[in-house]
Design a protein that fits this description.
The strands form 2 sheets. Strands 3-2-1-4-5-9-8 form a 7-stranded mixed β-sheet. Helix content is 29%, strand content 30%. It has helices at residues 3-16, 29-37, 56-62, 75-85, 123-136, 166-170, and strands at 45-49, 67-72, 92-96, 108-114, 137-148, 155-156, 159-160, 177-188, 194-204. It contains 6 helices and 9 strands; from the N terminus they run H-H-E-H-E-H-E-E-H-E-E-E-H-E-E. The protein is an alpha/beta fold.
């Protein structure tokens, strides 16, 4: 992605704030439930791809998680999260990077992505993302991923997206990943609109 894209997302966060964007959740209920349901533990290493100002890491810190990383293209979103967390933010590894140009320096047990993958409209972008996923996730590791459903928005924050049904999203990671479960979400934005999401959970084959 270009520097123009980085500037776009920084502008979105500065103008709307972390709780004024369409994907804002006071509590990431479905993400936390998925972590519980599929046996993720506080001793696991988790990366939240596109996590930005999400409160997921707040809740995981409350649950005793220690090895947490957040990756986002927009420095302003990471800054908002660090400010919110105060001293607790020092426990998080903050990564300002474009996921399509990032090489994981280590491996993780859990890869969480709520609403980044659907912004990757070019095949080369998706291939780069999946290469990072394959390198950055340990064998047996979990992938928790959500994208807009076919009846979800065609654009988000002024940018086009690729919408997926469960079958389409299941096909993306490839044969190295086993689908564990999929489900649908009707997310309610801060201003009351409904947005349809598809979620999939995968396990990387050993």
């Amino acid at each position: 992605m270009s520097s123009d894209m980085e500037a776009h997302w920084n502008r979105v966060y500065r103008q709307k704030g972390s709780n004024g964007v369409s994907w804002y959740q006071e509590k990431p209920t479905l993400s936390l439930a998925a972590l519980d349901r599929f046996g993720a533990r506080p001793t696991d290493a988790l990366i939240d791809v596109g996590g930005g100002a999400s409160s997921l890491v707040d809740h995981l810190l409350d649950r005793g998680w220690e090895d947490l990383s957040v990756l986002d293209l927009a420095q302003s979103s990471l800054d908002a999260a660090r400010l919110r967390l105060g001293d607790r933010g020092e426990q998080i590894v903050w990564i300002r990077a474009d996921i399509t140009q990032w090489t994981p320096p280590r491996s993780y047990d859990v890869w969480h992505d709520r609403a980044v993958f659907h912004f990757l409209t070019e095949p080369a972008q998706r291939s780069a993302y999946k290469a990072a996923l394959a390198q950055g996730l340990l064998p047996g590791g979990l992938v928790i991923m959500a994208t807009f459903a076919p009846d979800g928005p065609e654009k988000c924050s002024g940018l086009p997206v690729v919408r997926y049904d469960a079958e389409g999203l299941q096909a993306e990671p490839g044969d190295s990943f086993e689908l564990l479960e999929d489900w649908r979400e009707e997310h309610v934005t801060p201003w009351g609109d409904r947005q349809a999401f598809v979620w999939c959970v995968f396990r990387k084959r050993s």
